[in-house]
Amino acid sequence: MTVSDVQHDSSTYTVYDENSQEVKRLYASNYGNGDLCGFGTDFLVLEDGDRYVIVNAESGDEIAQLYRSNVGRFKHANGRLVVFKDGSKLVVYEVGSSGVSEISSRWM
Predict the structure, then answer these.
(1) Where are the domains of the chain?
(2) Cα–Cα distance between 38 and 44 in angstroms, integer?
(3) How do residues 35-87 score in pLDDT, each as one tens digit?
(4) Pairing of strands 51-56, 62-67
(5) Which has the closest alpha carbon to 74: 92, 60, 59?
(6) Which residues contact 88 (CB under 8 A, 6 or more apart)?
(7) Domain 3-107 coded CATH 2.20.25
(8) According to the model, what pLDDT value does residue 29 have?
(9) Mapped to the 3 state alphabet, what secondary structure does the chain carry?
(10) Which end of the chain is more exposed for a tag (fewer CB within 10 A), N or C?
(11) Residue 32 pLDDT more than 90?
(12) Distance CA 15, CA 19 (A)
């Protein structure tokens, strides 16, 4: 399954696959404030105060929590990657079913 779109309706995020079929409804309250930052191939990035919660789009399971003080500000997600801007450094993380790992970084 590949996420093609995510729609927000009051307290629910509805996830659609590559065939525009609804695959999951996620309740934002399950992830704190649950403000959607972006999504990758099969995950969502939600912001809750000073942390980012990365959620499996198909199961709704939490993959990881990343704190802004450690990773910086969310920039974007694409494919299996999520990118954060930490000061003047760009940091790229790979999202897998078992967690998140830093794979590269560069100074801007």
Answers:
(1) 3-107
(2) 6
(3) 999 999 999 999 999 999 999 999 999 999 999 999 999 999 999 999 999 99
(4) antiparallel
(5) 92
(6) 107, 108
(7) no
(8) 87
(9) CCEEEEEEECCEEEEEECCCCEEEEEEHHHHCCCEEEEECCCEEEEEECCEEEEEECCCCCEEEEEEHHHHCEEEEEECCEEEEEECCEEEEEEEECCEEEEEEEEEC
(10) C
(11) no
(12) 11
68-81 residue pLDDT tens: 999 999 999 999 99
Structure tokens at 66: 């990343």
pTM tops 0.90, yes or no: yes
pLDDT the model gives residue 69? 97
To the nearest whole number, what is the mean pLDDT of the chain?
A: 95
What own/partner pairs with CB < 8 Å and gap ≥ 24 does 62-69 have?
62/31, 63/95, 63/96, 63/97, 63/98, 63/99, 63/100, 64/95, 64/99, 64/100, 66/93, 66/100
Length of the chain: 108
